[in-house]
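Q: I'm writing up a methods section and want to include an example of the input and output format. Could you take the sequence below and give the corresponding predicted structure tokens, formatted cleanly so I can copy it straight into the document?
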Amino acid sequence: MRFVIFRLAVLACALAGAGFAQQPLSSAKLVEFIKSSIDQKLPDKDVSAYLGQVRLTDKLEDKVVEDLRRMGAGPKTVAGLTKLADQSAKLAAAPAKPLVAAAKYVEPPPPPQADQEKILAEVRDYALNYAKSLPNFICLQLTRRMVDMHFQPGTKGAWTPTDRIVEKLSYFDQQEKYEPITVNENPMFGKTWESLGGSISRGEFGSLLKDVFEPQTDAIIVWDHWGTLRKKLCYVFRYAVLQRNSRYSVDYEKKEQTVPGYHGLIYVEKGPNMITRLTLEPDMPEGFPVQEIHQVIDYDFVDINGQPHLLPLFSQVQSRAGHSGSRNEIEFRKYQKYAADTTIKFDAGDEAGLPEDQKVEEAKPVLKKP
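A: Here is the clean output for your methods example:
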């Protein structure tokens, strides 16, 4: 059964992260955050306090600081930005983005209905047998959690990193086992993932795929558009699961639970007809504390013991409770064959996140009729 647990009681203390290690951030991401904080009128002292936790990964130009000041950044924020600009002066500048006009997109017609049905039948068969096809393995699961205490629906949000969780994930006999290793570099051996608090999601390894395509779910699946993901052309289908057929549950602080219907998109790479992305948005009932949940799971081939297997690459879960927003960005690293005594470590070189252009659907190119 697909399940997601959201416990958002810790959001109120999210900005009190003085004990957290410095957060590595690119200058582009920092500028995006400052612009959002200006738009949402976040307190100058809170933004300034967050800047004290930032470690830039590339050079912040003085001109950018001045531009942000003119846009409305507060004096304490400007002082923090000036300090970061001085600290990053010897770092390499971020590579300039080429100023090339995007090609005009010409949408090809959808595949014939008979071809769509054939593609979906192939994908359905794969999804229903997905868990059985996986080998026993272990991997690292890296979760970066962020909050926005003044999140406004319809905006990108001004996300403040709160913590980083590293877990060992074991997959054996079609069962997942999660063992926390560190939280913000503090050892967590011997503790369970349920003790972590905050927002948690589980089920990326097949249960969601299976639930969407189970005959009992009776999901409505129709053509949506052509897409490109990680430079690969994809069929993109839209699906919906009615509440009476849903097995997707949301738990709030172990006090309230609901099983909503949900909808989303299915990305299928053209050619191999494999699922490369699944998105999910539950239709949350009015009055439930958690609202506007958005989940994305990306899949790609990973080599385990010399054999390629389609496995989760990246997942993002974003939700809102009142004006408090929560975002988890989850990456799966170092897949290897399962052995009971296998150890797995998180190295400093593993900190670099998945490139942003791999997390979003790319700008549509000019396409020829497939």
